[in-house]
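Researcher: Next entry in the queue.
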Amino acid sequence: MGATMAGAGAPAERPRGALCLGLLLLVLLRCGSAQPPGPCPAPCECSEAAETVKCANGNLTEVPPDLPPSVRRLSLSGTRLGRLPAGALAAPRLAQLRALDLSRSHLLAVEAGALAALPGLRQLDLSGNPLASLSPRAFGEAGSPLEELALRGALRGHGVLRSLAALLQAGALRNLSRLELADNGLLLLPAGMFASLPGLRYLDLSNNSLVDLRNVSFRGLRRLQSLDLSDNSLSVLRNGTLAQFRSLPALRRIGLGRNAWVCDCAIEDLVSWLKESDQVEGKEALKCSYPEKMLGKALLKINSSDLNCSVPLDLPSQLQTSYVFLGIVLALIGAIFLLVLYLNRKGIKKWMHNIRDACRDHMEGYHYRYEINADPRLTNLSSNSDV
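Model: Structure for this entry, 387 residues:
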């Protein structure tokens, strides 16, 4: 019986041994086929099996051509690239690249196709560059899987801002979840700039000079969670903008600190919204900047009696009334002028005849002198008479 059991156990152990042998062979094959990390370029520092490469060399003027193929995080911050042409970052050798830091690299231009062949790119930092040109086709025609884009202090020219708006509106960055546009001195944003960013969660517009948001649409940003508008020049938020904020289901944090709020009748809607909303971060610290009598007063403590808004402020109606009054005044002045001309028509007619006669006498004198000068006989006669 024992022999029988031993004979039955032998076939069960054979498959297990074969399975272990197969797994061992598979591991050996994978190890043999794995690419070893390539050599680190001379001006760079590589770490963690060449997955992180830093090339913070102030004399570097182009992307090193011999980067290891295993690099996942590449930093070229502090270099002097100047421009990023098409093909500077090619996919065959950077197929695994996920994070690219080009901040403060003196970039003036990002050309068409410069960032197109990076299938794994998720994070891109272009902050601190004096960008003069940003091609709307920098990520190619098919778009990019990019999720985070930082452009802090890199959009000083209005042309670059328009190019960025065209890039975003074209849908090349539909996967973007974080967009940083702080420190750019922006006054106004192009209409529909964020319309093609359905996955955007974090939008940073702080430390600019934004004066108005009426042409900015946030309605398509259904996943937006955080919007930073602090350190701008906003004086009021209109009903249309407030309605957009209410319509965004995921929006939980809005930064409005350090803006120049004008506490007149136009701010009533903003004050009402602040009192009922829990979206604004630190709303207790928001204070009036103008007029002088309201300086330093907290927006949450403003009442209608403080603003003296018993009579609704209807600026378009006031302007229309002013234009009508100005037209009446000008018409009255014109009528008086025509009346004066009519009453003095005889004197004016005599005066015009006198001017005509004086001009005629003057012209006849010129004509007489011309005839004397043109006739040589009269000239000689005039000379002899003088003698």
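Model: The longest helix spans residues 2-33.
Researcher: Noted, moving on.
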